[in-house]
Amino acid sequence: AQTVTQSQPEMSVQEAETVTLSCTYDTSESDYYLFWYKQPPSRQMILVIRQEAYKQQNATENRFSVNFQKAAKSFSLKISDSQLGDAAMYFCAYRSDSGNTPLVFGKGTRLSVIA
Amino acid sequence: DGGITQSPKYLFRKEGQNVTLSCEQNLNHDAMYWYRQDPGQGLRLIYYSQIVNDFQKGDIAEGYSVSREKKESFPLTVTSAQKNPTAFYLCASSMAGGYNEQFFGPGTRLTVL
């Protein structure tokens, strides 16, 4: 079974600075997808960014980018120019490339943004 | 507007009672999922359904039941057999294919009195 580990329960960053959230996963599969979801205080889950395992190029979405290291099974999220609205729980998730399989989530990292 | 709705937003249950959480989607997604969220535990899978009239147990299915009679609906029943049901429950749906994101509803907070 696949597992996802987020080793930082809490992180903080100064407004306008850069922060990196860590995620590692364990799988024996070669084809899969990785996701970062954000859960603000409203508790609505929002997709931040996704990465296909077969792509070497790291995904980027505006201020959000990932560092995907397939051999190391690492998938970190970098947030640049942090804003107060970035304060939230961030979940790393894994999904197999077979049908409609569920996401496997890490336990999350709570990010605080300091003004 | 397309999306996922969950009701009620807050639910209170007395010990020994069964309660049903509603989840409806109008995104025409084949797959639907139920997750439970507890502090420090992330999201844990309860049940999922890849197609109408079919569903599979997740990691923590004991004390829960589901049905999938319609594509749009995937209700979750929390039975009296669930020992610690107080939690936040999230419903999600997705299109076929691993690349496609799961869309989440706003959640239901269940409290056992």
What does this structure look like?
- The complex is a heterodimer of chains A (115) and B (113).
- Chain A has no helices and twelve strands.
- Helices cover 0% and strands 52% of the residues of chain A.
- In chain A, β5 and β6 (46-52) form a beta hairpin.
- Chain A has 115 residues and is mainly beta.
- Chain B is mostly beta strands and 113 residues long.
- Chain B has strands at residues 4-7, 10-13, 19-25, 31-38, 42-51, 54-57, 64-66, 76-78, 87-94, 103-104, 108-112.
- Chain B is built from no helices and eleven strands.
- In chain B, the strands form two sheets. In chain B, strands 2, 4, 5, 6, 9, 10 and 11 form a seven-stranded mixed sheet that branches. Chain B has a four-stranded antiparallel sheet with strand order 1-3-8-7, with no helix packed on it.
- Classes of the chains: A mainly beta (115), B mainly beta (113).
- The A-B interface holds A 6, 9, 31-33, 35, 42-45, 47, 50, 52, 91, 95-108 and B 30-31, 33, 35, 40-45, 48, 50, 58, 88, 90, 92, 94, 96-99, 101-102, 104, 106-107.
